């Protein structure tokens, strides 16, 4: 059954100030609930037997901070991580990442650590990384202690929360925490700014789509 | 199965869009109705701001809503502190920005922003400059934004040099940009004024600008904006004020000037032996601003005149300038009738640049013989460089243009008339001037004809009203046979006109002759070969309209 | 490592190799609902189309030099996989056989001497201290002998001075290797025409959102022994000071003439069987203009037929003004990103990806391929798609393919420094010593091709001898290839280091230059080559496949000589139509807003994501 929970913060049309767009990638072993987290965040939904993420290239969702609207462009792995064949293109230029593990599965935590290393080596140096111990609703089958993960996160400068896509615990919170930590200046405003590349669009090279931080 | 991702069909999406649109329309109607109510009730409050904002965010170009917001803010200002006003206007500024982001050409939003910034207790002009730059980077031809930038630049007291280099950048991106060239024409005289006051800008910079335009012209001769700018560059600067014609005689005293001016600014005086004559000046055409002024002396002009007769006027700087008149041998009158100076003198350096420009035009014409902007430019260049040398080519080129560019034919014909007349007036300076068969469509430089007694304008294409004839204060005989006159309305008052020949025009009714009543001394009129000539009982009808007439169509009345 | 047994044993399409055409096909099949299994024996995407960092490139070079080391199927297929009656195994080739004549060379010292390090640190101490204080948030790397330069090793930030900059351009091998991850070196560098078929496909299929591009900033040509900026857009023509105004008119008139489709027939009457050169001569173009149009804009040669030249000119001009001042785009992180983008779409629609999974053989029965043997598993499919590099030799037409000569150079500055970081396309015209034009692409740090302070020059031409022989001369026109010895970095004789300091833009920036590509005509010092690589690669785009191949095996060509990806896109589309004649080729993938999840009632949200708080606010006051 589809559990409907409250949707994430809706953008407020009255918001003053700038809008910044960021690319956020999800990483982690298969079946730790990466897509479920996104669905909970973006659509406020949870499906017990979620099919893998066919057709969802990426989803977008907006978070409102005091003076800034942060628009997340959330990339899902599309299952390419399954045989350790995730394309480097996936995390190119990502400004934020959520590395997800399953608190009932120690291996998935080990795999998460590998991803942290990989990102620290390959991704942009300013990337904001959050570690999410998902399936917090299954705490009675816990295999990874919260303290252990917290310590690891602290040592590596990661945001950390235990989340549950099913109960919505900490889902909005973790995205919000990332939004707060992201730099909001012009240079950091994601795809489209001058030193970044440009996306190709239908609107014949009209440069209007560029420069998301219209301060 | 739940949780499977599915793509909405086009139909579903269309339906969603339709529902959304319908909702929006509903909301808009509701909100707008509420605004009208509130405005009628004179409610100027926060709610009004809120509702109008919601509409404007959807449709930014509703002027009455912007006006309403202005009224509200003006009203609320009275009860709030300066900080309140600043905050309110900042949020207002933000609203216009939101609207402009959606529609960068919203006139209403730009206009409102101008007001907002001017009303703000502590405006941040640099921020506005940056905003303009941003919008112009997105669309370098957004003329609303150019207008706003000029406003901002003035308020922020930006260095013209800095703005000029901004236009450099924009021109480099795309030179088809009227707004940008125009802004340039405003900035250049500030940055590089011409010390001689002859050119629009200092000579070296002038040269640079001409090269710039030439590059644009050769890249794309069909782009009008660059040519438009070039015309500003080549445009003859306004001639300095001068007395071009003067007459002092017992019957008539007058002065004609190079440019029309008001009596006060002109400060005209007539001097006999350096003593100003007492009397009153009135303009020949009855306008406050005129080029021909008639002097009505308080006491009769002495005869014979003394040897020293002069006219005095004030130049642009307000200094008195005296011009001596030539007194005729018997002392009965004194006059000034010098050779007119058309076009300012060129320095050799500038002349050679212009010559290069002209050569370039000729080369361009080899590629595109029909390029009208190139043809027109070559005319302007020839006129600027050396008028005398290019008389025939000028006329020929203008004739070509008339053929090529039908839509602007009248413009070329008038230009041609002016230039042809200038050539003629350089040659003829006597009491009688003959301008027969010059294809004139307009009568320029009439003030230079102020002393002429006999003027022949036969076989031209004059058609429009001729108020400028009022300048011909001395003219006794005027012939305009075989022109295209349809009516004589607006005919200028010619106090000394005695004989007028209008044979072979298109005058149809006796009424059309009535304006000639402004010429009190008219005795002889010839309207043969006009439709009016076959009007029944012509003679009595004319007599009724022009009672002073003695001879009509060669026969006494 | 996941076990190979996890792979689905049957699917609709197996794609072997992640080259460009293969990846487009994989995406197209997956997009229309086919189950796609995409495998590649390499541990990277792209095959011969890949982009590597410096370390991975070295590995690739080693593999090519020693093909026997090349990752091969660990399992003997015959031991695990049974051949059924009537079946036979047709073994695949190793793709590195397509690479030959590899020569890699360092032109700089391994490291600086102790004295030099000391000198440099003393000299740049003061300025460095300032910089360091403003960058104190940087994570400190372990310090070795190059404390000053190592600082930025992990940084991608563009504003920071690069390693080389801080040491005034005295690069060492260690410097480059330390930054090895910041290189993206393309095996098959290509530009995209802004209105070329790949750009259109990326947009129409909605794959464009996965990739980012930089517009090429300038088109250069080699004329009279010098580099020249080619005025190619209207703005360029307007701004250039290298041609007279009359030439400007000639050029614009010629170009507009080529674009004026209404009068094309009339304009080119009588030139149908003549060369483009003859046509241009008939237009009385000056030598400069003729060169610009023929060699740079039409990218032709003296023998290019007239109508082909016109077509090429049209293609160039049509692509102008869409994304920048030139007709070309370059993908961020290199061309190796493009196959990955198609693979991602394939995965998004359910395709399964498995790298390091070599295919050993095809299973063929009754002249049909029934599947692939890989890692001891039989993988069955309706269709098998594979790169020609791996195709069994008996499936090829036996015709010896022609070759491509490639040169890659890491340099210490641009071939023609400019105010803003340039991205250059240069088609080197054929000359007496090199019968074929050479395509030169120079990319800089902002494309992530290399670290700050460096540039990467790619050269490509048709092979006639070895890559080095084919390209060395052109390389020497543009670059200094002599080795730098450690003593050249002696601070007391500072000549070379200031020349190579990357500060040239300021010297060359003449007053009033407005980015038009006009550089002061001063004598330039050529960039120093720090590292170079030459290799040859087979050009298989002209090859056809013998009728021996089963009709459900689809072979995809490797990188071709042309500048753009036209060939791959067309080949992919053609093969797709052969596989699925009735299905649409890469229809637009939906945007996030268009996706619903079953069991979910769609809520009405407007384009900006605003739900309608509006209603209530408006209605409140009136109630």
Automatic annotation (TrEMBL), chain A:
<keyword id="KW-0378">Hydrolase</keyword>
<keyword id="KW-0449">Lipoprotein</keyword>
<keyword id="KW-0342">GTP-binding</keyword>
<comment type="similarity">
    <text>Belongs to the small GTPase superfamily. Rab family.</text>
</comment>
<keyword id="KW-0813">Transport</keyword>
<dbReference type="InterPro" id="IPR001806">
    <property type="entry name" value="Small_GTPase"/>
</dbReference>
<keyword id="KW-0547">Nucleotide-binding</keyword>
<dbReference type="GO" id="GO:0015031">
    <property type="term" value="P:protein transport"/>
</dbReference>
<dbReference type="Pfam" id="PF00071">
    <property type="entry name" value="Ras"/>
</dbReference>
<dbReference type="GO" id="GO:0003925">
    <property type="term" value="F:G protein activity"/>
</dbReference>
<keyword id="KW-0653">Protein transport</keyword>
<feature type="compositionally biased region" description="Polar residues">
    <location>
        <begin position="186"/>
        <end position="198"/>
    </location>
</feature>
<dbReference type="InterPro" id="IPR005225">
    <property type="entry name" value="Small_GTP-bd"/>
</dbReference>
<dbReference type="GO" id="GO:0005769">
    <property type="term" value="C:early endosome"/>
</dbReference>
<keyword id="KW-0636">Prenylation</keyword>
TrEMBL record, chain B:
<keyword id="KW-0433">Leucine-rich repeat</keyword>
<keyword id="KW-0637">Prenyltransferase</keyword>
<dbReference type="Pfam" id="PF01239">
    <property type="entry name" value="PPTA"/>
</dbReference>
<keyword id="KW-0808">Transferase</keyword>
<dbReference type="InterPro" id="IPR002088">
    <property type="entry name" value="Prenyl_trans_a"/>
</dbReference>
<protein>
    <recommendedName>
        <fullName>Geranylgeranyl transferase type-2 subunit alpha</fullName>
        <ecNumber>2.5.1.60</ecNumber>
    </recommendedName>
</protein>
<dbReference type="GO" id="GO:0005968">
    <property type="term" value="C:Rab-protein geranylgeranyltransferase complex"/>
</dbReference>
<dbReference type="GO" id="GO:0097354">
    <property type="term" value="P:prenylation"/>
</dbReference>
<dbReference type="InterPro" id="IPR032675">
    <property type="entry name" value="LRR_dom_sf"/>
</dbReference>
<dbReference type="InterPro" id="IPR025875">
    <property type="entry name" value="Leu-rich_rpt_4"/>
</dbReference>
<dbReference type="InterPro" id="IPR001611">
    <property type="entry name" value="Leu-rich_rpt"/>
</dbReference>
<dbReference type="GO" id="GO:0004663">
    <property type="term" value="F:Rab geranylgeranyltransferase activity"/>
</dbReference>
<keyword id="KW-0677">Repeat</keyword>
<dbReference type="Pfam" id="PF12799">
    <property type="entry name" value="LRR_4"/>
</dbReference>
<comment type="function">
    <text>Catalyzes the transfer of a geranyl-geranyl moiety from geranyl-geranyl pyrophosphate to cysteines occuring in specific C-terminal amino acid sequences.</text>
</comment>
UniProtKB/TrEMBL annotation, chain C:
<dbReference type="GO" id="GO:0005092">
    <property type="term" value="F:GDP-dissociation inhibitor activity"/>
</dbReference>
<keyword id="KW-0343">GTPase activation</keyword>
<feature type="compositionally biased region" description="Basic and acidic residues">
    <location>
        <begin position="128"/>
        <end position="159"/>
    </location>
</feature>
<dbReference type="InterPro" id="IPR054420">
    <property type="entry name" value="RAE1_2_domI_C"/>
</dbReference>
<dbReference type="InterPro" id="IPR001738">
    <property type="entry name" value="Rab_escort"/>
</dbReference>
<comment type="function">
    <text>Substrate-binding subunit (component A) of the Rab geranylgeranyltransferase (GGTase) complex. Binds unprenylated Rab proteins and presents the substrate peptide to the catalytic component B. The component A is thought to be regenerated by transferring its prenylated Rab back to the donor membrane.</text>
</comment>
<protein>
    <recommendedName>
        <fullName>Rab proteins geranylgeranyltransferase component A</fullName>
    </recommendedName>
</protein>
<dbReference type="GO" id="GO:0016192">
    <property type="term" value="P:vesicle-mediated transport"/>
</dbReference>
<dbReference type="GO" id="GO:0006886">
    <property type="term" value="P:intracellular protein transport"/>
</dbReference>
<dbReference type="GO" id="GO:0007264">
    <property type="term" value="P:small GTPase-mediated signal transduction"/>
</dbReference>
<dbReference type="InterPro" id="IPR018203">
    <property type="entry name" value="GDP_dissociation_inhibitor"/>
</dbReference>
<feature type="compositionally biased region" description="Acidic residues">
    <location>
        <begin position="592"/>
        <end position="623"/>
    </location>
</feature>
<feature type="region of interest" description="Disordered">
    <location>
        <begin position="591"/>
        <end position="623"/>
    </location>
</feature>
<comment type="similarity">
    <text>Belongs to the Rab GDI family.</text>
</comment>
<feature type="domain" description="RAE1/2">
    <location>
        <begin position="521"/>
        <end position="560"/>
    </location>
</feature>
């Amino acid at each position: 059954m589809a559990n409907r929970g409250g949707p994430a913060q809706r953008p407020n049309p009255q918001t003053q100030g700038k809008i910044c767009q960021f690319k956020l990638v999800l990483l982690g072993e298969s079946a730790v609930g990466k897509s479920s987290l996104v669905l909970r965040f973006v659509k406020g939904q949870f499906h017990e037997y979620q099919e893998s993420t066919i057709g969802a290239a990426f989803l977008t969702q907006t978070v409102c901070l005091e003076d800034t609207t942060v628009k997340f462009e959330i990339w899902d792995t599309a299952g390419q991580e399954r045989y350790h064949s995730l394309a480097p293109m996936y995390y190119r230029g990502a400004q934020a990442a959520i590395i997800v593990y399953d608190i009932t599965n120690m291996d998935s935590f080990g795999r998460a650590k590998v991803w942290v290393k990989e990102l620290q080596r390959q991704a942009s140096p300013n990337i904001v990384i959050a570690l999410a111990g998902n399936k917090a609703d299954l705490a009675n089958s816990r295999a990874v202690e919260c303290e252990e993960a917290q310590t690891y996160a602290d040592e590596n400068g990661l945001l950390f929360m235990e989340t549950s896509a099913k109960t919505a615990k900490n889902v909005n919170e973790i995205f919000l925490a990332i939004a707060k930590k992201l730099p909001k200046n012009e240079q950091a405003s994601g795809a489209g700014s001058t030193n970044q590349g440009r996306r190709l669009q239908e609107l014949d090279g009209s440069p209007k789509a560029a420069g998301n931080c219209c301060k | 199965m739940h949780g499977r991702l599915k793509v909405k069909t086009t139909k579903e999406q269309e339906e969603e869009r339709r529902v959304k649109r319908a909702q929006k329309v509903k909301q808009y109607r509701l909100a707008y109705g509420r605004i009208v109510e509130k405005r009628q009730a004179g409610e100027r409050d926060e709610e009004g701001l809120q509702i109008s904002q919601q509409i404007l965010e959807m449709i930014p170009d509703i002027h009455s809503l912007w006006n309403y917001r202005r009224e509200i803010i003006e009203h609320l200002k009275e009860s709030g502190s300066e900080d309140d006003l600043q905050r309110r206007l900042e949020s207002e500024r933000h609203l216009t920005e939101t609207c402009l982001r959606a529609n960068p050409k919203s006139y209403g939003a730009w206009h409102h922003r101008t007001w907002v910034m001017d009303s703000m207790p502590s405006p941040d002009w640099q921020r506005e400059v940056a905003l303009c730059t941003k919008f112009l980077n997105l669309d370098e031809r957004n003329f609303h934004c150019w207008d706003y930038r000029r406003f901002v630049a003035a308020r922020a007291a930006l260095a013209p040099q800095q703005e000029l280099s901004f236009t450099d950048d924009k021109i480099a991106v795309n030179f088809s940009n009227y707004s940008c060239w125009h802004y340039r024409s405003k900035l250049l005289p500030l940055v590089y004024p011409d010390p001689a006051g002859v050119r629009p800008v200092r000579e070296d910079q002038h040269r640079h600008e001409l090269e710039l335009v030439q590059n644009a012209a050769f890249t794309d001769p069909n782009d009008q904006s660059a040519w438009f700018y070039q015309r500003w560059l080549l445009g003859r600067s306004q001639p300095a004020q001068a007395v071009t014609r003067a007459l002092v005689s017992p019957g008539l005293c007058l002065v004609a000037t190079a440019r029309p001016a008001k009596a006060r600014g002109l400060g005209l005086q007539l001097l006999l032996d350096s003593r100003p004559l007492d009397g009153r000046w009135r303009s020949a055409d009855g306008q406050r601003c005129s080029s021909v002024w008639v002097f009505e002396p308080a006491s009769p002009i002495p005869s014979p005149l003394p040897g020293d007769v002069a006219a005095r006027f004030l130049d642009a700087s307000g200094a008195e300038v005296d011009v001596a008149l030539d007194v005729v041998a018997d002392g009965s009158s004194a006059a000034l009738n010098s050779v007119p100076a058309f076009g300012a003198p060129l320095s050799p350096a500038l002349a050679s640049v212009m010559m290069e420009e002209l050569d370039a035009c000729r080369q361009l014409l080899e590629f595109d013989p029909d390029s009208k902007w190139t043809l027109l430019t070559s005319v302007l260049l020839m006129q600027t460089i050396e008028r005398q040398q290019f008389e025939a080519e000028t006329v020929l080129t203008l004739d070509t243009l008339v053929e090529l560019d039908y839509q602007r034919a009248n413009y070329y014909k008038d230009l041609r008339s002016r230039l042809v007349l200038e050539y003629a007036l350089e040659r003829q300076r006597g009491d009688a001037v003959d301008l027969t068969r010059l294809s004139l469509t307009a009568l320029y430089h009439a003030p230079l004809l102020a002393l002429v007694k006999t003027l022949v304008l036969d076989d031209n294409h004059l058609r429009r009203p001729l108020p400028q004839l009022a300048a011909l204060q001395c003219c006794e005989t005027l012939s305009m046979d075989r022109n295209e006159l349809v009516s004589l309305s607006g005919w200028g008052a010619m106090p000394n006109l005695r004989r007028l020949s209008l044979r072979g025009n298109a005058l149809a009714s006796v009424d059309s002759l009535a304006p000639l009543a402004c010429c009190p001394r008219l005795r002889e009129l010839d309207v043969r070969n006009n439709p009016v000539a076959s009007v029944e009982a012509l003679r009595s009808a004319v007599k009724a309209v022009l009672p002073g007439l003695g001879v009509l169509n060669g026969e006494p009345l | 490592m996941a076990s190979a047994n996890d792979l689905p044993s049957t699917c609709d399409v197996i794609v072997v190799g992640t080259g460009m055409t293969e990846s487009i096909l994989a995406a197209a099949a997956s997009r229309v609902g086919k189950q796609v299994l995409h495998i590649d024996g390499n541990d990277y995407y792209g095959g011969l189309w890949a982009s590597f960092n410096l370390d991975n490139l070295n590995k690739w070079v080693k593999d090519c030099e020693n093909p026997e080391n090349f990752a091969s199927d660990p399992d003997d297929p015959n031991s695990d996989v049974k051949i059924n009656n009537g079946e036979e195994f047709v073994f695949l080739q190793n793709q590195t056989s397509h690479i030959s004549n590899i020569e890699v060379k360092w032109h700089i010292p391994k490291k600086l001497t102790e004295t030099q390090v000391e000198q440099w640190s003393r000299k740049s101490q003061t300025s460095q201290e300032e910089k360091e204080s403003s960058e104190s948030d940087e994570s400190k790397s372990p310090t070795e002998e190059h404390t000053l330069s190592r600082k930025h090793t992990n940084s991608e930030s563009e504003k920071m001075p690069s390693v080389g900059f801080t040491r005034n351009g005295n690069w060492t091998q260690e410097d480059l290797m330390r930054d090895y991850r910041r290189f993206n070196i393309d095996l098959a560098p290509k530009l995209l025409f802004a209105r070329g078929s790949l750009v259109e496909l990326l947009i129409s299929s909605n794959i464009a959102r996965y990739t980012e591009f930089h517009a090429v900033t300038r088109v250069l040509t080699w004329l009279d022994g010098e580099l020249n900026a080619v005025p190619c857009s209207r703005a360029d023509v307007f701004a250039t000071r290298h041609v007279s105004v009359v030439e400007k008119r000639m050029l614009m008139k010629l170009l507009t003439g080529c674009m004026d489709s209404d009068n094309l027939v009339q304009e080119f009457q009588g030139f149908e069987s003549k060369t483009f050169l003859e046509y241009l001569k008939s237009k009385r173009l000056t030598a400069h203009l003729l060169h610009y149009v023929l060699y740079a804009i039409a990218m032709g040669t003296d023998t290019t037929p007239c109508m082909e030249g016109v077509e090429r000119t049209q293609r160039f001009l049509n692509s102008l003004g869409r994304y920048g001042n030139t007709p070309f785009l370059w993908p961020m992180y290199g061309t190796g990103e493009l196959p990955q983008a198609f693979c991602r779409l394939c995965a998004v629609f359910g395709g399964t990806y498995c790298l390091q999974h070599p295919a050993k053989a095809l299973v063929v029965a009754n002249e049909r391929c029934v599947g692939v043997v890989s890692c001891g598993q039989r993988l069955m499919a309706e269709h098998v798609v594979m790169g020609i590099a791996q195709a069994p030799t008996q499936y090829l037409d036996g015709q010896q393919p022609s070759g491509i000569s490639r040169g890659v150079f890491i340099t210490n500055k641009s071939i023609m420094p400019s105010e803003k970081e340039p991205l250059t396309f240069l088609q080197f015209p054929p000359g007496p010593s090199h019968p074929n034009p050479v395509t030169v692409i120079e990319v800089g740090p902002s494309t992530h091709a290399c670290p700050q302070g460096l540039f990467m020059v790619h050269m490509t031409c048709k092979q006639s001898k070895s890559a080095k022989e084919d390209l060395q001369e052109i390389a020497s026109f543009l670059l200094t290839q002599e080795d730098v010895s450690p003593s050249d970095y002696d601070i007391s004789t500072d000549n070379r280091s200031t020349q190579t300091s990357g500060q040239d833009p300021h010297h060359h920036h003449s007053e009033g230059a407005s980015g038009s590509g006009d550089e002061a005509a001063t004598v330039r010092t050529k960039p120093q080559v720090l590292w170079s690589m030459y290799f040859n690669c087979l050009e298989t785009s002209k090859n056809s496949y013998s009728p021996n191949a089963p009709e459900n095996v689809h072979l995809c060509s490797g990188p071709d000589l042309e500048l753009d990806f036209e060939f791959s896109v067309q080949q992919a589309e053609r093969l797709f139509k052969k596989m699925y004649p009735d299905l649409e080729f890469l229809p637009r993938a939906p945007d996030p807003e268009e996706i619903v999840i079953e069991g979910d009632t769609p809520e009405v949200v407007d384009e900006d994501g605003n739900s309608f708080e509006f209603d209530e606010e408006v209605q409140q006051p009136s109630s």
